[in-house]
């Protein structure tokens, strides 16, 4: 029984590894959901209680407003907020001028999708479907072409150069290069921009700025933090230039993240690890069959050589097969 189990596990090693990978991923999802629920549920309950108290205080201080009227107003305000239209005092912000629309198209085509501004009309929604249907595959192709060129220039050539120059192990050199590249990318596209956003966004702390940079460059795009949404005219005299700079930063940052991921994906150690979950290719020919074919090819070659010799000499000496010793020597 043990021998059969060992033989079965050896024959189906890739399938077993793949099944364990699925189980691990499901457990990772469940554990993550449990942790998020344990952390965020108390804050949600506290916020709901605060809103309930604030609503009761408002109705008590404004007896001319009924609960039904307030309900209608709040529902309408929340509906407008979901479409990116605020009822607060900073109503000078426009979501659909050209620069804001350019920011929206970049978030759509890169699948970041903050959700802070969405099409309001049916025509806009229909065009968004058509535009994304064509634009997202084109964007993926465009990014893959750029990333392939950059990986060749930034990753493959330096690793090959130092491998020849220092005679260092290529796998170890690739790991060192990928680590340094990840550190440089995190410094210039996450930590330094987070510090810049900290100085520009007065309502953000450093953790919130860092959170925005990471969520944006990984195309998660939750939309709870969007730069420039709380700025007044005095705080930001050039809102269009600010949003245009954010658009350029997000595109460049996304390219750099993809370069780092592709560099890590090509690591020899990671390739070897991935093979554990793939079904191994069955060899079409075993070694014995290969030797037989090589033996036959040598016999055919010997026959051809003797035939050429007979034609050149003009003789009709009968053909004598090559001896086994001759064939074995050639083998």
Structural features, described:
The chain is mainly alpha-helical and 331 residues long. The chain has 3 domains: 1-64; 66-91, no CATH class; 96-278, Helix Hairpins (Orthogonal Bundle). The protein is 73% helix and 0% strand. The chain has helices at 2-11, 13-61, 67-82, 98-109, 122-166, 170-200, 206-217, 239-265, 268-274, 287-313, 324-330. The longest helix is centred in the N-terminal third of the chain and has 49 residues, at 13-61. The chain starts with a helix and ends with a helix.
* Extended strand count: 0
Are there runs of 5+ residues with pLDDT below 50, and where? 282-290, 316-331
The fraction of residues assigned to DSSP E strands is under 5%
What is the mean pLDDT?
81
Defining traits:
3 domains, potassium ion leak channel activity, ubl conjugation, Helix Hairpins, mainly alpha, extended, potassium transport, 331 residues
Topology overview:
Layout: H1 2-11, H2 13-61, H3 67-82, H4 98-109, H5 122-166, H6 170-200, H7 206-217, H8 239-265, H9 268-274, H10 287-313, H11 324-330
Helix pairs in contact: 4-8, 5-6, 5-8, 6-7, 6-8
Subcellular location: Apical cell membrane; Cell membrane; Cell projection, Dendrite; Cytoplasmic vesicle
Main location: membrane
Pfam families: Ion_trans_2 (PF07885)
């Amino acid at each position: 029984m043990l021998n059969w189990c060992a033989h079965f596990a050896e024959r189906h090693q890739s399938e077993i590894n793949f099944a364990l990978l699925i189980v691990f991923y499901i457990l990772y999802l469940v554990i993550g959901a449990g942790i998020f629920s344990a952390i965020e549920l108390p804050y949600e309950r506290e916020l709901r209680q605060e809103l309930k108290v604030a609503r009761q205080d408002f109705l008590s201080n404004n007896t001319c407003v009924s609960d039904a009227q307030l309900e209608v107003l709040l529902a309408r305000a929340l509906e407008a907020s979901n479409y990116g239209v605020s009822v607060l005092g900073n109503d000078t912000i426009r979501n659909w001028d050209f620069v804001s629309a350019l920011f929206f198209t970049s978030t759509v085509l890169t699948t970041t999708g903050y959700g802070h501004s969405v099409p309001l009309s049916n025509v806009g929604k229909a065009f968004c479907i058509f535009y994304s249907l064509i634009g997202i595959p084109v964007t993926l192709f465009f990014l893959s072409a750029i990333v392939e060129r950059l990986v060749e220039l930034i990753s493959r050539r330096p690793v090959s150069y130092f491998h020849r120059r220092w005679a260092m192990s290529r796998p170890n050199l690739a790991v060192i290069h990928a680590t340094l590249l990840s550190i440089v990318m995190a410094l210039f596209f996450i930590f330094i921009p987070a510090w810049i956003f900290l100085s520009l966004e007065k309502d953000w702390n450093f953790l919130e700025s860092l959170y925005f940079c990471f969520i944006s460059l990984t195309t998660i795009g939750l939309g709870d933090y969007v730069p420039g949404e709380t700025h007044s005219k005095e705080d930001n005299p050039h809102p269009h230039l600010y949003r245009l700079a954010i658009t350029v930063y997000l595109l460049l940052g996304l390219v750099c993240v993809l370069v780092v991921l592709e560099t890590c994906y090509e690591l020899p150690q990671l390739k070897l690890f991935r093979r554990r979950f793939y079904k191994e290719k069955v060899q079409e020919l075993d070694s014995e069959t290969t030797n037989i074919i090589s033996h036959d090819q040598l016999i055919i070659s010997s026959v051809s050589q003797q035939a050429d010799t007979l034609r050149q000499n003009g003789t009709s000496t009968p053909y004598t097969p090559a001896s086994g010793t001759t064939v074995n020597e050639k083998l």
